[in-house]
Amino acid sequence: MSETTFSVTDSAAKRIAFLAAKEPKPVMMRVAVLGGGCSGFQYNFSFEERRNEDDLLIEQGGASVLVDSTSL
């Protein structure tokens, strides 16, 4: 992916890094957008240990954030 269509604020990166540090293993935060029907999109935030091949990886302020290509 050559164009970044997702960004992480400094404040969000700081909070993500803080929460990730509390996990027993090194993790990255995954942000995913799910179809939501009548009520619009649903957003999922979770921690994962592995990066998928189609993920955009944003590293900022000690945080690593993953977004899959479909969610972008």
Structure, described:
The chain is an alpha+beta fold and 72 residues long. A four-stranded mixed beta sheet has the order 2-1-4-3. It is globular, with a radius of gyration of 13 Å. The chain is 17% helix and 33% strand. The relative contact order is 0.30. It is built from one helix and four strands. It has one helix at residues 10-21, and strands at residues 28-34, 42-48, 56-60, 63-67. The N and C termini lie close together (10 Å).
- Number-wise, the strands total 4
Strand content: 25-35%
Q: Any idea what the shape is?
A: globular
Order of helices and strands: HEEEE
Low-confidence stretches: none
Largest sheet: 4 strands, mixed
Q: Count helical runs.
A: 1
The helix-and-strand class reads alpha+beta
Strand order of the largest sheet: 2-1-4-3
Mean residue pLDDT: 91
Instruction: Indicate the percent of residues in helices.
Output: 10-25%
Radius of gyration: 13 Å
Oligomer: single chain
How far from one another are the termini?
10 Å
Question: Which terms would index this structure?
Answer:
globular, 1 helix, 33% strand, 4 strands, 72 residues, 4-stranded mixed beta sheet, alpha+beta
